[in-house]
UniProtKB/TrEMBL annotation, chains A, B:
CDD domains: GST_C_Tau, GST_N_Tau. Belongs to the GST superfamily. Tau family. The lineage of its organism: Eukaryota, Viridiplantae, Streptophyta, Embryophyta, Tracheophyta. The keyword Transferase applies. Residues 90-215 form the GST C-terminal domain. InterPro entries: Glutathione-S-Trfase_C-like, Glutathione-S-Trfase_C_sf, Glutathione_S-Trfase, Glutathione_S-Trfase_N, GST_C, GST_C_Tau, Omega/Tau-like, Thioredoxin-like_sf. It holds the Pfam family GST_N. GO terms for molecular function: glutathione transferase activity. This is glutathione transferase. PANTHER family: GLUTATHIONE S-TRANSFERASE U8, GLUTATHIONE S-TRANSFERASE, GST, SUPERFAMILY, GST DOMAIN CONTAINING.
């Protein structure tokens, strides 16, 4: 059942941060209007809604803008609490989930820095990415199936770029960080498969070729 | 009235991140046992409680450890909700407060990088710090007295290193980023004064000389 709301999401087709919000709203069954932003030529609406960072996603609920995807996820959880929780009920388990949200927020950028660098810097960045993935493997998924606890939640959405975008960033940059062998990161790979198998993800139409082409152009801008 | 709990805080006398938690618990009136950690020779307890980051603060509630000060603040708010809220009640205002929590978490390190650098790098870092302080001045305190809303809350605790530690970091590094004139950052300076005037802060015994000496030693480790 869909919940109808005065709700707009300003996004960009290639931003992993935007998909966190799309999937959270889909999991909650909350309807929203999606507004595509041209992030190379930003709209007045975006600049007004997120004057500090000028970035997508921005969620506009009843005319009020909320920026920063991790902040938006907390807002969604608090505003539509009854349906499909994104955080466990128990305060200690919630703190464990938030620990991984914070870890993701702090490390995701280092983790995909390999995509924004070249040469020796890229070699170093790819090594650092693998170190971060190793922590996710050994600590994040040590004693549970999902980062967020016993079902997909906020922390899993924070890491959703790994199952859904990492392979495109690898293709666009010509570097593999995840490894081909099933012996590399077995828990993380099983989690990736579980994540991709969710209905809300399976029902997402990725324009893969367009996205890889876009990432290649962005990469050239970063490394030049 | 104090609330008695099985509660331990592992901290370090010179860590601004630890004082966020001390003051949050003081504001809530929750009693705790403080355990001083030697962060140059970390205890087994710390390594076991925070295996990913190996850092203070760690809060241990009924035997269960919680790491990362921003995560601990959310836990404190959820566990002792009735007393002296750290987040506004309204979901939109909560998201605005969390926006500044996130901003602080992302930018605080850049903001005190001047303390960890020397020469040209330090000049650049001090400039970047002032740019971040300018955003706090113009956007963070634009239409409200506190970062967290109408009273001191989670976001203010995240920035508490500015009123309470910045001057010591400036002294230890020989660089001023906040400026001497009252025309520099007037809102931020007024907020700093309000923050320092709170009872929980006034009642905190800082060992200022020891702390500055410690920061000087740490600085030498960073720049060498």
């Amino acid at each position: 059942m869909e919940i109808k709301e005065d709700l707009k999401l300003i996004g960009s087709f290639a931003s992993p941060f935007v998909y966190r919000i799309i999937w959270a709203l889909n999991l909650k069954g909350v309807e929203f209007e999606y507004v595509e932003e041209d992030i190379l030529n930003k709209s007045q609406m975006l600049l007004k809604c997120n004057p500090v960072h000028k970035k997508v996603p921005v969620l506009i609920h009843r005319g009020k803008p909320i920026a920063e995807s991790a902040v938006i996820l907390e807002y969604i959880e608090e505003t539509w609490p009854g349906v499909r929780c994104l955080l466990p009920k128990d305060p200690y388990e919630r703190s464990a989930a938030r620990f991984w949200v914070k870890f993701g927020e702090d490390k995701n950028r280092s983790c995909y820095m390999f995509f924004m660098t070249a040469g020796e810097k890229q070699v170093k960045a790819a090594r650092e990415a693998r170190e971060i993935l190793s922590i996710l493997e050994s600590e994040g998924l040590k004693d549970k199936k999902y980062f967020g606890g016993s079902e997909v939640g906020m922390a899993d959405l924070i890491f959703s770029w790994i199952p859904c975008f990492l392979d495109m960033l690898e293709e666009a940059s010509g570097v593999k960080v995840m490894g081909e062998s099933s012996e590399d990161f077995p828990r993380l790979k099983a989690w990736c498969q579980e994540f991709r198998d969710m209905d809300v993800v399976k029902n997402t139409k990725f324009h893969r070729q367009e996205m890889v082409a876009y990432y290649k152009r962005r990469r050239l801008m970063f490394i030049s």
